Amino acid sequence: MGFLEKVVNRIVQVFQFILVFLFILFEEIIWEGIARPIYQKIQSLKILQKLEAKIQKTHRYVSLISFVILLVVVELSGIVASIVFVQGFILLGLLLYLVRIPLAAFVFWFFKVAKEQLLSFHWFKWAYMKLMFGIDWLKSRKVYISTMTYMVKIKEKFKIKLRAIKLKYFNEESKFMKELKQFYNYIKKEKKGEDKKVD
What we know:
mainly alpha
């Protein structure tokens, strides 16, 4: 029995690690790096701010159907991208997946706008609460906490190194910037000399 428990615990740990890894991959790289800036840009568009007011006044069934259609389109685009990628068309697969990201950001925006209407459906609210519970469960795992702590340290080290590079090479008083300016002025003078010869 002890052996079986160890095997089951090991399988559960591996499963948790895979889930946490995929979640962090989505949250930190795809969402924070790509989707969030797109989502923030969508929020700032005036035309969508007007659309937001209209969506909030729309009947809840219209909002639900619109959300489901948008979600299906996003998921299908992800499936198509995966199939194309597996078939060996790597660049096309990546391109399709990149196209999927702004679509997903738009769906997220739509959900935020129509959230009150969508959650008025009991089954939708139940599914949403279960999803939130699952996310909270993942974030409470030791592997998630330790990985995020490690990533924060890596980010801080990267920022320090980036700041040092900026101060060393891109400071106006740095040797690199002075040489770059001298090179630019030299090219500029050469260009003027060529223009005079042409005249």
